[in-house]
Amino acid sequence: MPHDHHDHPHALLPSDPALRVKALETILTRKGLIDPAALDEIIDTYQNRIGPQNGARVVARAWSDPDFKAALLADATPLVAEMGYFGRQGEHMVVVENTLQTHNMVVCTLCSCYPWPLLGIPPGWYKSDAYRARAVREPRKVLAEFGVTLPEGAAVRVWDSTAEIRYLVLPMRPEGSADMDEAALAALVTRDSMIGTGLARVPA
């Protein structure tokens, strides 16, 4: 039959997303449109040199330095740029603070806008249709599925990233971290805590 799904071009691509990406990469490489070595370099950069550790350093400094924290919440972009975290997907940064009264959570309802210079490559779930829809519609249920239980009466505020603005959550500093230096504090900051779908680690 003309409309049999087996005849559809998409049926020739693997169903698994990773295999589809690999198939497309192979095709583009054979056509000379991409350089595998350059692609590997880009992936390595965002996975190992640009990643959540950058955002964690910003959070740790804010926890340690009240003046830096106040300036960060007022206008984050120049401060994070001074720390060397700037560029594509991080042109305009806004930092929002979690408190006992308000828990912030970030989503991009239209696509997957994400602060790459501070958090690296976005996780798969952040780009999923389910997260993008449910984070706005039922944020408390989504947080519960991530294992986040909020204090009684705490409000949830959802921030929608756009092509112009990227958000970073400043998580609450965990108890028992008062005597820790910035390097030790940074180790307590998780990627999810800076998206708002997690909390900072409690010191051992």
From TrEMBL:
Fe(3+) binds at residues 108, 111-113. GO terms for molecular function: nitrile hydratase activity; transition metal ion binding. It holds the Pfam family NHase_alpha. It catalyses: an aliphatic primary amide = an aliphatic nitrile + H2O. Keywords: Iron, Lyase, Metal-binding. It comes from the Bacteria. Coiled coil: none annotated. The keyword Lyase applies. InterPro entries: CN_Hdrase_a/SCN_Hdrase_g_sf (IPR036648), CN_Hdrtase_a/SCN_Hdrlase_g (IPR004232), CN_Hdrtase_asu/SCN_Hdrlase_gsu (IPR023900), Nitrile_hydratase_asu (IPR018141). It is an enzyme of class 4 (lyase). Residues 16-197 form the Nitrile hydratase alpha/Thiocyanate hydrolase gamma domain. Its EC number is 4.2.1.84. Belongs to the nitrile hydratase subunit alpha family. This is nitrile hydratase.
